[in-house]
Amino acid sequence: MPSNYLDRYGRSASVCHRLPPKLKLLMTVVVIATGVSVPVAYWPALGALASLVFIGHSLARIPLKYLARRLAIFMPMVMILSISLPLAQGFRSGWEIMAGILFRSTVAFLAMLWLVNVMPFDQLLVTLRRMRVPAALVAMMAFMYRYVFVLWDELSKMRNARRARTFSAGGLRHRWRNSVQMIGMLLIRAMQRAERVHGAMCARGWDGHVRRLDEMPD
Amino acid sequence: MARAGSAGLVLDKLLRVAGVTRQRAPSPQFDELGASLTARPQPPWTPTLFEHTLFDRARAPELQMIPVAYRVEIYATNSAVFVDVVHFRSLTTARDTMHIPDGVLSLPVCVATGAVSFGAVGYSLHKLKDSLAERTIPLTGMMSALLFAGQMVNFPIGLLGIPSVSGHLLGGVLASAVLGPWAGCLAVTLVLAVQCALFSDGGLLALGANVLNMGVVGALGGYAVYAAARKLLGGGSRATVVGVVVAAWVSVMAAAALFCLELRLSHSGVEYDFSNVFALMVIVHSAIGVGEAMISGGVISFVLSQRPDLIYQGVPRPGLVGYFGRATAAGVVVALAVAVFLAPFASAAPDGLEAVGEKTGLTSAAAAPKVGMLDDYAIPAPVVHWEEAPAWQKISVSLAGLTGTVMVLVIALVLGRALKRLASTAGPSHAK
Fold first, then answer.
1. Nearest to A77 among B52, B92, B135 (CB)
2. Is the ipTM value over 0.90, yes or no?
3. E strands of B130-263, at which residues?
């Protein structure tokens, strides 16, 4: 799996990418908080917010096609949640809540998408660390990010192996058992790998404290 | 949730039953395979279906978590094998059903749930500092990565013969059964945080609510239920599996109940009756919970048969404080799960709701429109509507609850029996 697989647009060098990381995070939080708390009756304010987010996207040079694709995944999910509100009342009431949820969540989603695409994950980790998020938590997050790729590759290896050995997928029960055993096997391998990695870390002087290079004394 | 392409599959199935094979244009990627289409044999040969999902990485990297399914049909005759590759892209999967996006909950609710989650995560970190500090970071990080990767394994539901409807693992109870409650809570929290930060799946402000529903209640509370059930059944390997199955189902229901509560509190000023929405939530999450229980129980029983030492055995701490703490946590989670069944009943009875509303002032907003409608006999339609609604709720909710409970019991029984068989074939070393 390629290393830029998860954050594809995070590494370009637009105006938005060059902003200080803390400012990016703060801006996103402010936009989402405003979007969430503005009543639907003030829809022009929500529209202004949405266009602000859109300007942010175009400044960050995020392709429109990508946005459309992500929205195509996101919208049905929110639609199902929000349509159930008027649906449960036989379409007599609940339209207001539905409109509110739709408007706000779309604006918030686009804002969050902007942050994801202007801030690579390593930068986020450093920022979190500077914002005094507990070092252990950030270290776990870094560890997770490191090994997600490894486990994904392991999973696809296991899938290939299964595919090579089974001609037909069998019935529903068989497929469930297959999937369950695959997760179980992945769990066992992951835990064994964690033990190995831990041993290797201990051999290199790991004592439970995470050190950052820019904090090291010269 | 049906994916795009499922209608085509249903049509395929019907056609196949009728003995007709649909001719498809070969996809441009698979020209070399599609070439064999021209020579495809006609029935009476029955096609063997070989189906799997894999990722279309090169073409759509931003659809990371969205499986793109390829269906490979293999037609075998006496003299040759013909292969047909059909691919269809799926748009949504069931995995998104429990992540709350931003904009659904109000700002105060986000802040309050965030504060609770912050406290719980901080306390979990604190608890982990006591024991084995240098070991937790790799283990917890790896477990989060595993949950992340494990969510890509699809579980076909096969509803109405549509093979593309699938579910996946959520994994709170699984994580805490392997790592213990505190590290399990952290693992789920990390998964949620990274899904928010990398996929914008689940909101940034709603992260607190998501962590509360799935990390705190799902992993911590789920562990309490698991430990209580396991202890009650004697603590053997069968008790472990039954405990995981029960706890997984209960934790999903408790998360649904919490989400209902959060939704209700977020829109407390709006005149809208939420009981029908809650009934819908119960039905949907009853099914999701059954899937989660089956997956978690299956994985745990597999791990028990291969590496039983990986299961967290708990810190032996005799003492009334620890026991009562766990019992209380288990009680709270079970009560939450029960509450989701009772919520529609409670609010469907106007008298009770009025009384509660007067006492707390919380539900008065919901009671107001209902009483107004019942008073206004000049308009018959709303009255009829309200006569109908409680009956529908009662039937569906009771049915969902009953089916869920029966299903969980059956899963526990079947998995327990399978485990016994495994243990007897593998020898006495797998007793615990």
1. B92
2. no
3. 155-156, 166-167
